[in-house]
Design a protein that fits this description.
about 140 residues, mainly alpha, two-stranded antiparallel sheet, globular
Length: about 140
């Protein structure tokens, strides 16, 4: 997401020719903002949403439970914009359907182009994951 936002900042223009100043947010953080601030979080919707599907749903604000992502997709759909929205997720389309239901997935299909990035995960090359695998192996060996 950071790389995409850097590209947009440098090369993307609004229909008017004005430079775009993109902002992005982690989806669980956006949902947490709803829990704190309620519906006012939808007044300024960023361009990018990272980690779709990792949020707690429904999110609670003063006793009002809301699937924030479903509401967000409907808000983006209803408002329209000359700035496209960008979402990242590690979920499959099937996972997304299970999380948000057919209506929201219909909105997602109309709002976004699916770009699947294939290849090996970078997690395999990070030291932290090697330590976790080592601990899991040690634990398994003890059992």
């Amino acid at each position: 997401m950071k790389a995409v936002m850097l590209f947009v900042r440098k090369y993307w223009l609004r229909d008017s020719g004005e430079q775009v100043n993109p902002k992005w947010v982690n989806v669980p953080t956006f949902c947490g903002s709803y829990a704190t601030d309620g519906f006012s979080v939808f007044e300024s919707i960023p361009m990018g949403f990272d980690e779709l599907g990792t949020e707690i749903a429904p999110t609670n604000h003063v006793g009002n439970k809301l699937n924030v992502v479903a509401h967000l997709m409907n808000t983006i759909y209803d408002n329209g914009s000359d700035i496209p929205k960008i979402v990242t997720t590690n979920n499959t389309l099937s996972d997304t359907l299970s999380l948000y239901g057919p209506r929201t997935v219909d909105r997602i299909a109309q709002l976004f182009n699916l770009v699947e990035l294939k290849g090996a995960t970078r997690r395999e090359s990070l030291d932290i994951w090697n330590l976790i695998k080592k601990e899991q192996k040690q634990k398994k060996d003890k059992e």
